[in-house]
Amino acid sequence: MVRECDVLIIGAGPAGLTSALYSARAKMDTVLVDKSNPGGQIAITHEVANYPGSPNDTGPKLIEKMVDQAKQFGAEIIRDCILSVDFSGDIKIVKSQENEYHAKAVIIATGANPRKIGCPGENKLIGKGVSYCATCDADFFTDLEVFVIGGGDTAVEEGMYLTKFARKVTVVHRRDELRAAKSIQEKAFKNEKIHFMWDTVVNEIKGDGIVESIVFENRKTNEVTEYFADEEDGTFGVFPFVGYTPNSSLFEGLFEMDWGYIKTDDNMKTNIEGVYAAGDIRIKSLRQVVTATADGAIAAVQAEKYIEDKFKEE
């Protein structure tokens, strides 16, 4: 079946849902497609404390509100898996398992996923002590201990940020020296709250509903040790920062990219006319719900202007 529309949005995280809201509210025929349920990364976040106006919402609750609001203005949300895209013509053609979509403009909001450690217990304890966002969750670990996994710029910078909340931050790195920039390393080594575990990997994260212990292995000595939460604390934080994987494989060769992230200008325009990118999929300095929604709003407004100008004679 061919579904024609004004704006097709690929990806139903905060950026995509905001695009759908703004696009539909502008009276454009709007279709949002995602292979999974709406939400993206935020859907597995236990509590969202830094989104303006929603200090006590869980991730799923916030997404539920976004979905309802987009639908209220007429956006159609379809669960479908995109297989291929053709952005060469004025009408953009997107093929999926179920349909073929013909759109005047396309907004890509497929996001990026944090790269995981890959150890037992990690997935089970996401949001229960395991977090991939210090800015989002640092305050939940006030006066507790925290382990940061990784040795690059992000890991060390986020480790320093966590020292504002945690009483002790231990950076666990698989090598005997950090990969972070020297200037960042110097600041970290001067911070009395930061400690380091060298040549160490995480074998397992344990806990019954909350992180209670973590199993380390020294790569040089092969010694295995298990660290247990302080009895008074009952838990501690584990923050893996070993990189992100942008969900952009479908668009390889089409856009200007950097490590898989799509390059846009400030108006979310890509190098292809009529195609926009919003949220974590694009090159940006801060990946948060609030910046994703801002991207989505801008992309939808720009798509509306593009359609009015490009197809005004129709």
UniProtKB/TrEMBL annotation:
Cofactor notes: Binds 1 FAD per subunit.
One record GO biological process: removal of superoxide radicals
EC number(s) given by UniProt: 1.8.1.9
Catalysed conversion reaction: [thioredoxin]-dithiol + NADP(+) = [thioredoxin]-disulfide + NADPH + H(+)
Superkingdom as given in the UniProt entry: Bacteria
Enzyme superclass (EC): oxidoreductase
FAD/NAD(P)-binding domain location: 6-296
One annotated Gene Ontology cellular component of this protein: cytoplasm
GO molecular function: thioredoxin-disulfide reductase (NADPH) activity
Family statement: Belongs to the class-II pyridine nucleotide-disulfide oxidoreductase family.
Annotated protein name in UniProt: Thioredoxin reductase
Protein source organism: Haloplasma contractile SSD-17B
Gene behind this protein: trxB2
